[in-house]
Amino acid sequence: MPQKDRIIRLCDAAPKEHKQDEFFSIDPSTYPTILANRDGKGIYSVYFTVVHEKYHLYIYDTFKSFINTGSDSDDDWIRNQDESAGWGDVKTFWLNSDTYKIGEYLELDDKHEFGDQEIRCMRAVYNLTGEDINKNVFPEKDWANPGCQSKELWGRPPETTP
Fold first, then answer.
1. Dihedral sign, Cα of residue 108, residue 48, residue 39, residue 122
2. What is the H or E stretch that residue 56 is in?
3. d(CA 86, CA 72)
4. Residues 6+ apart with CB under 8 A from 22
5. Do 43 and 157 form a contact (C-beta atoms < 8 A)?
6. pLDDT tens-digit profile, the chain (162 residues)
7. Going by fewer Cβ within 10 Å, which terminus of the chain is more open, N or C?
8. Nearest alpha carbon to residue 112 among 126, 95, 125, 124
């Protein structure tokens, strides 16, 4: 939890394959269809997971001063005015903490707790550029087996770029 520390704890699911581009849509007349996530596995998936989790910390750091002020009606740590204005490249409804039903999609126990955060974090990963990825992922140093250099490739080989 961001209130306790700044450590991102990864589990064994981090290097598993990320799903390819995912579309989320509810009511296109009010909320646009959102394209989120990225295709990746191995060290690329780990990088995408870290970017996603760091964006949760960014949301917390940005809005922690507003948590108890009453300007966050759905308790998702995103201010009402920022939800409706499309903060984080996503427009959400300030009275629904899971506008795009991400909690249902991810089969979370508490389906409504972090949905509007999740879609923004997924979008942060989707918005990464090839330059961002190449600057932070080093397939030539991937020692995992399977990995980017192993006989059974898991991720992209070192000479390719996203």
1. positive
2. helix 43-63
3. 15
4. 35, 36, 37, 122
5. no
6. 556 778 888 887 777 766 656 667 776 667 777 777 777 788 888 898 899 999 989 988 888 766 666 588 888 888 888 888 888 888 889 898 888 888 777 777 765 566 888 889 888 988 888 899 889 999 888 888 888 888 877 776 555 555
7. N
8. 95
